[in-house]
Amino acid sequence: MVFAPVNPASLAAAAIPQMAAAGNNWARLPQIKIERKLSKNFALAGAILAPQTGDFSTNAAFFLQPTSGASSRLPFFQSRLAFTEPNFFGTKKTGSVGFSAHYGRSRVITGASPIVENNIESFGVALDWNFPLAERLNLSGETFFGRNLGGFQAGVFQSYNNDFAYRQNGNLVSAGVRAVGTRGGWTQLAFTPDVLQNRLSLYGSVGIDDPADADLTSRTPRDFRRQNFAFAFDAIYRLSPQLQIGTEFRRLQTLYLLSGERSSNHINFSAAYNF
Hints:
The chain is mainly β. The protein has 1 helix and 15 strands. The strands form 3 sheets. The protein has an 11-stranded antiparallel beta sheet. The protein has a two-stranded antiparallel ribbon with strand order 7-10. A hairpin with a 4-residue loop joins strand 1 and strand 2 (about 40-50). The longest helix has 4 residues, at about 70.
């Protein structure tokens, strides 16, 4: 996407990027994109994309099937302004910083008689960075906030609450459909030690996705996901320009509204051949 386009380095996370649903917004969507270089350092990009909202209730979050986004008959709109410097911090290495935005809409139908049509907005803003701190040290990452971003795995896969309720005088009052607001981000520090002919790279990553608790209140109690937190450590060795091998340890912690915290540890050994 044009919105929040940076991903952490990882051989273990190939099809789905590392830190997805833990601060890393991502999607591969059909789009028409235009890019224009404004000056030596600044570039502007804009895109019209297929509106894939990833509704959790459809079990089709990451397939190009009709969702509430497609039902809105409004495409996604995204833009990004990027600054690139070929000699960032005097390291003689390229670095970049970007600011991006996203806007879309969902059409959610509730009720049977009468049928109620709800049009809720999907929007987000993000800051991304990828630059060298020193000759062998690189920092990349993103931070964002927005609403109805489940199609990008933000909100911990939760786009909207179709049974939203608020408390009034100690009682729950039904209020229909509400977009789930969320915020978060990720960052990764990469280090290439002066050993093994610079073929070994070490990475440490951390990410968080924190939906707004107030948007997760519902008339019927549901075990919504309140927060995802993850961290990972990677080692990648380049045997040749085409062949890489690596190992990764990743820990994911999910905090649920009703059932509390669940955690998972993942160890991966991987190889990749580029051709």
